[in-house]
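Aim 2 progress update. The chain analyzed this quarter is reproduced below.
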Amino acid sequence: MPEKTIALLHPGEMGAAVGACVSARGVRVLWAAQDRSAATRARAEAAGLKTCENLDRAVAAADIVLSVCPPHAALDLAREVAQNRFRGIFVDANAIAPATARTVARVVEAAGASFVDGGIIGPPPVSKGRTRLYLSGRARAEIAALFEGTNLQAIALDDEPGTASALKMCYAAWTKGSTALIAAVRALAQSEGVDGSLLAEWKLSQPGLLKESDAVAGKVRKAWRWVAEMEEIAASMAAAGLPHGFHEAAADVYDRAARHAGDGGGGERDRSAKPAPAGTLDAVLSALM
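Predicted structure tokens:
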């Protein structure tokens, strides 16, 4: 494999694990340390990433920029990279709508870069067989080759920007949208005093929902990140002429859950470093009402 240098922006829980996959193959992976927390620094060091002072220097040294950030920051981060006149391959692996991905493509291509659209499905790739990176764009095969034999399975789709993001939106529309729906249903049941009866009926007729319901509290730690993801899914639905109100409501559910978790939804650049919030399912459901 020809030597490549990757600038990974930025190593949160998912990004650091993705970076570790390629750094373990001997690929040089840089990250920008400016304004990042001690927790992020620790993740980057554990993943074998090389420290750069700031984004400008990381981008200047890179052949490939890999953006793995909260969806609400994806476009702004692309603009920062474009301002540096980056002319390599820009990979956006964020949970964004196809239209947002195409906007990112226009931004980075106007500055001279090539664009690859990415969508990650699964948990941080710390073991094999659980996580996939879907890729679309002309340079998709080159990016997929970087991950051969790693914990992250890269799957090349077609050459159209937005295809990988569309797949991610469709997948998350169900997995994360259904979690929001279950939480809202449980909150309604508690509000009306029928929660115990509902759980008894689920045990008889929908036992799988009991497990999904019990998992809601553990997912609150990511609720702040999922607000924007639900908004991107709603935008995807609207662009396709489909009803989009459900995922707008799901965004509201996650926003309320994030506030319960102690993250009011803005301002902190490295929010991925927050510890998992404590709290019971009942406390989360109360926060929704």
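The beta strands are 5-9, 28-32, 50-52, 64-67, 89-92, 114-121, 131-136, 152-156. Confidence is low (pLDDT under 50) at residues 264-278. These observations will guide the mutagenesis experiments scheduled for the next reporting period.
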